[in-house]
Amino acid sequence: MRGSRSKALHDRALVNCQYSMATFSTGERKRRPHGDRKSSEMTLHLKQTFEAAILTQLYPRSQIDIYVQILQADGGNYCACVNAATLAVIDAGIPMQDYVCASSAGFVEDTALADLNYVEEAAGGPQVALALLPKSDQIALLEMNARLHEDHLECVLDAATAACRAVHAVLDQVVRDHVREVATLLGE
């Protein structure tokens, strides 16, 4: 995609994402760390999520590349990628509408759980991945992998939303601390 003028957009930036997993990131070895169906799906989800948050109209005829590689898959891979990419985009100085905070949630044994680990994901219950713009309460991405009764949907979404807000508080504090540290080093 890099260097292709035919894909350049005259009115906004093109967001290019690539998701891959290291071959050693899980117990089972993968021959192709990217290019498989799962990686292509995650790449598309990342692209859609960040196109909703980045102010692309400020950079016409430009391309913003986001490359993410999972080194250890412990569950919540998409959510960890979104949170890490959000910090990277902020650090790069690319303006966004808001932080993009992501969390997974699931329904295990009549209980809504947030931020699922690998064991909870492998249990096979319904799972939701939520990417949220917390200040405006806009949903950048919502994905559900299995059927869930509508009586339980609200509590699972509430758990994911609460986890996204908690992630937002942590990310905001980290960014503010980093800005303070850089300002101190520059003597401002």
TrEMBL record:
Q: Does the keyword Zinc-finger apply?
A: no
Its annotated function is as follows: Non-catalytic component of the RNA exosome complex which has 3'->5' exoribonuclease activity and participates in a multitude of cellular RNA processing and degradation events.
Report the domain of life of the source organism: Eukaryota
Q: What organism is the protein native to?
A: Alligator mississippiensis (American alligator)
A GO MF annotation of the entry reads: RNA binding
* Subcellular location per the Swiss-Prot or TrEMBL entry: Cytoplasm; Nucleus, Nucleolus
**Record's protein name:** Putative exosome complex component RRP41
Quaternary state and interactors: Component of the RNA exosome complex.
The residue ranges of the Exoribonuclease phosphorolytic domain are 11-95, 98-162
